[in-house]
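Slide 14.
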Amino acid sequence: MEMAITLPFVFLGFLLVAIAHAFGEEAPGQKIMFLGFGWLMGIFSIVAVINVARETGYSGIVDLGTGALYIMIPALFLWFIYIVAKTFTEMGSKIFSGLGR
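Slide 15: predicted structure.
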């Protein structure tokens, strides 16, 4: 019953990621913002599930949630590096293409 409290946060995270993918390439800033908030909402909800499961004695859920965090946090970090690198290369190409005119 206590774990049902975190379900709205999970759905909100999925909703934010879906909204981010709806923006497309026209609004890259909004896409990055919604994707980042969606990922963070997912991580926070998994942490909440782990804490509730630890208090109630569900050891299998604690192990499963910890494993999910071990996957999600490095994936979020790599995604952030990719977005920063992509943004800088796009900015650099716009700057250098403007210099040649």
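Speaker note: Residues 48 and 56 are 12 Å apart (CA to CA).
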